[in-house]
Amino acid sequence: MSYIQHKAEESLEDYLETILILSRRLSVVRSIDVATELNFSKPSVSVAVKNLKNREYITVSPEGYLHLTDEGQKLAESVYERHTLLAKWLTHLGVDPKIAARDACKMEHDITPESYEAMKKCILSILEHN
Asked: Given Cys at both, which of 18, 66, 71, 104 links 87, Cβ 3.0 to 4.6 Å?
């Protein structure tokens, strides 16, 4: 995968994660909610929504409400889990929570499933004993 393709995948994962988070806070999620949450322009979000829809990660109702498909939900939850665990770990290590969240966002996209599962097992073991 080229660098540009990798960055595009990261971006789509961030959009899915944001839609998931917003769906837990709001009764309905619209493109404008995603734009506001990410501080992105409406046209940028519109392009991303089209890509997510084309890849069948989301559906868009006639009213403009965004809904994760089963596949989109699975991917969003995976990204969110990685982000949450890595941010908690970094915070536990003494990293400022804002920096930990930013770094976790970078790490969540690049770590292989094998490495993540090994880290997860170790991190959960340590966090459970504190």
From this structure: 104
